Amino acid sequence: MPAGAGRRGLPPGRHLCWLLCAVTLKLCQADAPVREEKLSVSASNLPCWLVEESVVAEECAPCSSFQAKTTPECGSTGYVEKITCSSSKRNEFRSCRSAVMEQHLFWKFEGAVVGVALVFACLVIIRQRQLDRKALEKVRKQIESI
């Protein structure tokens, strides 16, 4: 048979591997933290907590349904903290990441890792059994031919 002729595509079992890799990548992208939006360079558009000294007035808390609709800072994480700027005495909201949310994402990731590990462990066991059967069949044929 000339080079390049024969079956096309991936060998059996590789399709499943690529499928699992694609699913894992999709899960990781869904769990990836949302990056902060880039702020414009002009000082007038910058939040006061970036320009001057600030104090956290209210700790990081989930947004209410009203805040989720009206406050743009709620959009990225769903959590905000109230900031009071020292010089201008302005109160502003800042998006934040809560410990509860981080813990939830961590355990979600751990679950995905354990799930993928179990799938691949099962694939290894199945492949090992196939190889054992082939080896036993080969030995049986050698014994019969004597």
UniProtKB/TrEMBL annotation:
<dbReference type="GO" id="GO:0030496">
    <property type="term" value="C:midbody"/>
</dbReference>
<comment type="similarity">
    <text>Belongs to the JTB family.</text>
</comment>
<keyword id="KW-0472">Membrane</keyword>
<dbReference type="InterPro" id="IPR008657">
    <property type="entry name" value="JTB"/>
</dbReference>
<dbReference type="Pfam" id="PF05439">
    <property type="entry name" value="JTB"/>
</dbReference>
<dbReference type="GO" id="GO:0005819">
    <property type="term" value="C:spindle"/>
</dbReference>
<keyword id="KW-0132">Cell division</keyword>
<protein>
    <recommendedName>
        <fullName>Protein JTB</fullName>
    </recommendedName>
</protein>
<keyword id="KW-0732">Signal</keyword>
<keyword id="KW-0206">Cytoskeleton</keyword>
<keyword id="KW-0496">Mitochondrion</keyword>
<comment type="function">
    <text>Required for normal cytokinesis during mitosis. Plays a role in the regulation of cell proliferation. May be a component of the chromosomal passenger complex (CPC), a complex that acts as a key regulator of mitosis. The CPC complex has essential functions at the centromere in ensuring correct chromosome alignment and segregation and is required for chromatin-induced microtubule stabilization and spindle assembly. Increases AURKB activity. Inhibits apoptosis induced by TGFB1. Overexpression induces swelling of mitochondria and reduces mitochondrial membrane potential.</text>
</comment>
<dbReference type="GO" id="GO:0000281">
    <property type="term" value="P:mitotic cytokinesis"/>
</dbReference>
<dbReference type="GO" id="GO:0005813">
    <property type="term" value="C:centrosome"/>
</dbReference>
<comment type="subunit">
    <text>Interacts with AURKA, AURKB, BIRC5 and INCENP. May be a component of the CPC at least composed of BIRC5/survivin, CDCA8/borealin, INCENP and AURKB/Aurora-B.</text>
</comment>
<keyword id="KW-0131">Cell cycle</keyword>
<keyword id="KW-0812">Transmembrane</keyword>
<dbReference type="GO" id="GO:0016020">
    <property type="term" value="C:membrane"/>
</dbReference>
<keyword id="KW-0498">Mitosis</keyword>
<feature type="signal peptide">
    <location>
        <begin position="1"/>
        <end position="30"/>
    </location>
</feature>
<dbReference type="GO" id="GO:0005739">
    <property type="term" value="C:mitochondrion"/>
</dbReference>
<feature type="transmembrane region" description="Helical">
    <location>
        <begin position="105"/>
        <end position="126"/>
    </location>
</feature>
<keyword id="KW-0963">Cytoplasm</keyword>
<keyword id="KW-1133">Transmembrane helix</keyword>
